[in-house]
From TrEMBL:
GO terms for molecular function: nucleotide binding. Residues 7-125 form the Gfo/Idh/MocA-like oxidoreductase N-terminal domain. InterPro entries: Gfo/Idh/MocA-like_OxRdtase_N, Gfo/Idh/MocA_Oxidoreductases, GFO_IDH_MocA-like_dom, NAD(P)-bd_dom_sf. Residues 133-247 form the GFO/IDH/MocA-like oxidoreductase domain. It comes from the Bacteria. Pfam families: GFO_IDH_MocA, GFO_IDH_MocA_C3. SUPFAM superfamilies: Glyceraldehyde-3-phosphate dehydrogenase-like, C-terminal domain, NAD(P)-binding Rossmann-fold domains. This is Dehydrogenase.
Length: 330
């Protein structure tokens, strides 16, 4: 637990997510952006200058700063274990971008280091902080559509640049870890534990597409799609169907959540629209503020390191199924 003095927070990584984190941190009260660590480049120098902060020449130099309390890790996924463990060893709390890591060995090493050195390990599964997804989950848990039997989620974006680390599966885990893991975590958070996964993966020039069927302990069956190379604006949508209705949300329409309920069993009813509120706070901002509050107070986070590790386990099972053509039990 950290007292109420200003927290000094550094960011390891100076790409898109590193800059996003920095922009959020600089707007927060009682937070000081202590600097970036990134390979020295014109982009990193410009970013540090634009945020009015320091660019550390090495990660060791950053960790040697005794008054840095928190390190946000926004580096390529394959580096998460190394940088998180090093930070914990130096007594720094860690906020790590999703996915937590690429192997269970790595996630377990990160959790062990956090426990051993008494630091917090917080992993950014941002859908848990997105109002439309939280709203959908709240209605499901309230029983609004009865017991969920089937579901579907789809997430699609442009293909990463050919020279990007995202394109290297050994660094990023590919589309399963970059895109699908969002919906894996959300569905597990909403529906409970996954018992088996069956998946396929298709790659072609400029395209990587994954499809996975998750069977839950509750009996629900959910289909997930993740697509790099989608010829259109970023797409994210989810639908859950229960015994007495259907709920769906999509970033492609202006309604944050649509509920269609049956008037009585077996009779289709009229659509009931749940009004959306204008987003007063970006989900990343809500997520980072929540994590900082957990570090200050010792409160349990909305998403635990164990939750993040379970998402990695399910993504790994999907990858194994895609390779073998066989369903994988969990």
């Amino acid at each position: 637990m950290t007292n109420e003095r200003s927290l000094r927070v550094a960011v390891a990584g100076c790409g898109t997510m590193g800059k996003l984190y920095a922009s959020v941190l600089t707007r927060m009260v009682d937070i000081e952006l202590a600097g970036f660590y990134a390979r020295r480049s014109e982009s990193a120098i410009d970013a540090a200058a634009s945020f009015g902060t320091r660019l550390f020449m090495s990660y060791e130099e950053l960790l040697a700063e005794a008054d840095i309390d928190v390190v946000c890790i926004t580096l390529p996924t394959y580096l998460h274990r190394q940088y998180a463990v090093q930070a914990a060893e130096r007594g720094k709390h860690v906020i790590c971008e999703k996915p937590m890591a690429l192997t269970l060995e790595d996630t377990e090493a990160m959790m062990r280091a956090s426990e051993r050195y008494g630091t917090r390990l917080l992993v950014g599964h941002v859908l848990r902080f997105a109002p439309e997804y939280r709203n959908l989950r709240d209605h499901v848990l309230s029983g609004k559509i009865g017991k969920v039997g089937v579901g579907h989620a789809r997430r699609a974006s442009l293909h990463p640049p050919s020279g990007s680390w995202f394109k290297n599966e050994e660094m990023s885990g590919g589309v399963l870890f970059d895109l699908m893991i969002h919906d894996i975590d959300f569905m597990r958070w909403t529906l409970g534990e996954v018992r088996s996964v069956y998946a396929s993966l298709t790659t072609a020039s400029g395209i990587e597409y994954a499809n996975a069927t998750l069977r839950f302990a509750s009996g629900a069956i959910v289909n997930l799609e993740a697509h790099w190379g989608y010829p259109g604006p970023f797409l994210a949508e989810v639908e859950l169907a229960g015994q007495s209705g259907v709920m769906r949300c999509s970033n492609q329409n202006g309604q944050s959540l649509i509920v269609r309920q049956m008037e009585s069993p077996g009779i289709a009813g009229e659509g009931v629209h749940i009004p959306s509120f204008l987003l007063k706070k970006d989900p990343y901002e809500a997520e980072i503020e929540h994590f900082i509050a957990c570090i200050r107070t010792g409160a349990e986070p909305v998403v635990s390191a164990e939750d993040a590790s379970r998402a990695v386990e399910i993504a790994l099972a999907a990858g194994c199924s895609a390779q073998t053509g066989l369903p994988q039990k969990l």
